[in-house]
## 1
Amino acid sequence: QVHLAESGGGLAQAGGSLTLSCGASGSISSYNVMGWYRQAPGKQRDLVATISRGSGTNYADSVKGRFAISRDNGVNAVYLQMNSLKPEDTAVYYCYLGEFSPRRDYWGQGTQVTVSS
């Protein structure tokens, strides 16, 4: 079983910055991808960014150039640096870990990010 624990959410003003952190513990496969998704009230959960163990990244168009994802394989952690925040970035942000063999998905509890205008 894998456990994900997020930290770093909170309140920011538009144009400000926040950094999210997530640590994974448990029996983690060497072949995995980590990342962040977000869910705004009344909307579906959407991809924000993912990163492979080899540091290959994928971003949602809405955050490209503003957000940066990184990971530390030594401690099974993933980070999301969020700059130039906008009110539309307000959502619950979920840490994600996906394993490929066998195929499994794990989610954190979520951390609230609120951006005021």
## 2
Amino acid sequence: VQVVESGGGLVQAGGSLRLSCAVSGTIFSVNDMGWYRQAPGKQRDLVAVITRAGSTRYSDSVKGRFTISRDNAIDTMYLQMNGLKPEDTGVYYCNAEIGVRVGVNITYWGQGTQVTVSS
């Protein structure tokens, strides 16, 4: 199983980026997925999560600016980030609960993608 993020980069404050997270490999299902970020010297924090059915939850710091979505047909999750602020800088990680076979779920993390917002 592979969980791969893409779409990070350098952007000016107020700009936008779209992150993607693709799951591949021999899997039974992809259940809850989420984005987390880790700023330098800080712990990894939740940004947003989405269930397989499409229910979402956001951290207060990104509500109204970020939108999480997913395409179950291709096992891919997205994070549309608008109105970026310097404090959004960090490594963004994809988290996915994957059913590897009936009744067996394993949580996987991607390798992370760097997002840098300049002021």
